[in-house]
Amino acid sequence: MNQHPDFRTEPVPGLPEALPKGEKILWQGRPDTWHLAVEACGLYWVGCYFVLLVLWRVGVSSGDLAMGEALLTGVPFILLGVAATAIVWLIAWAQARATVYTITSARVVMRIGAALPVTFNIPFSKVENVWLDLRSSGTGTIALQVTPVARISYMVMWPHIRPWHVRKPEPAIRAIPDAARIAGLLAQAAETHASQPVLTRMCDTVAAE
């Protein structure tokens, strides 16, 4: 797997250089901001944490204060919660805006990084399996299980990485709409390129709306 710095001028959006003769783009896209915030950045967890914090603060205060005054003690935590969730959403928005995923007839190209853009080339010859996490909304994550010789940094790739696979990181096309169709397109392209990955579909019962 090759890594290239991103440049100000791209010959093709999302690609650091023109495609070789015979190679063609099959699909390009980027993460959905809302679903990236929920699935990768923990937006719901942050929101729930502050809801519980407000309930705890009001509950503790209600023993010594009137209910109206007790409710007021929760206001600072509500404001903190709004600020925290807004920051999480902005991080997801910046990551989604800076990202371009590209599937060609020979590889997957991931231009990622809001602060320090880099481009990763993942040839199909390095892909062992393709894993799909599909949500009921139709969005999903497509992870690539790559050969052991391909060195990947979990921190550099985040959030474009399969969650919780730290020891053997797997690059991932995160939170994209119409994920099932894109996963099928990717698997077919890789099979055509003779790497023959196995497509495993794992449907989440909880939708991320």
Instruction: Tell me the number of strands.
Output: 9
Beta-strand residue fraction: 15-25%
Could you name the ranges where pLDDT drops below 50 across 5 or more consecutive residues?
Answer: 204-209
Classification by helices and strands: alpha+beta
- How would you write the strand order of the largest sheet? 1-5-4-3-2
User: Distance between termini?
Assistant: 33 Å
Shape: elongated
Helix content: 25-40%
Could you tell me the radius of gyration in angstroms? Answer: 21 Å
The total of helices stands at 6
pLDDT average, as an integer? 85
Give a quick account of the main beta sheet: strands, pairing sense, barrel closure. Answer: 5 strands, antiparallel
What is the N-to-C succession of helices and strands? Answer: EEHHHHEEEEEHEHE
Can you walk me through this structure?
This protein has 209 residues and is of the alpha+beta class. The chain has six helices and nine strands, in the order ββααααβββββαβαβ. The strands form two sheets. A five-stranded antiparallel β-sheet has the order 1-5-4-3-2. It has a four-stranded mixed β-sheet with strand order 8-7-6-9. β6 and β7 (140-146) form a beta hairpin. The longest helix is centred in the middle third of the chain and has 24 residues, at 75-98. It is elongated and about 75 Å long. Mean pLDDT is 85; it is low at 204-209.
List its traits:
4-stranded mixed β-sheet, 209 residues, alpha+beta
Q: What's a quick, concise take on this entry?
A:
By secondary structure, this protein is an alpha+beta fold. It contains six helices and nine strands, in the order E-E-H-H-H-H-E-E-E-E-E-H-E-H-E.
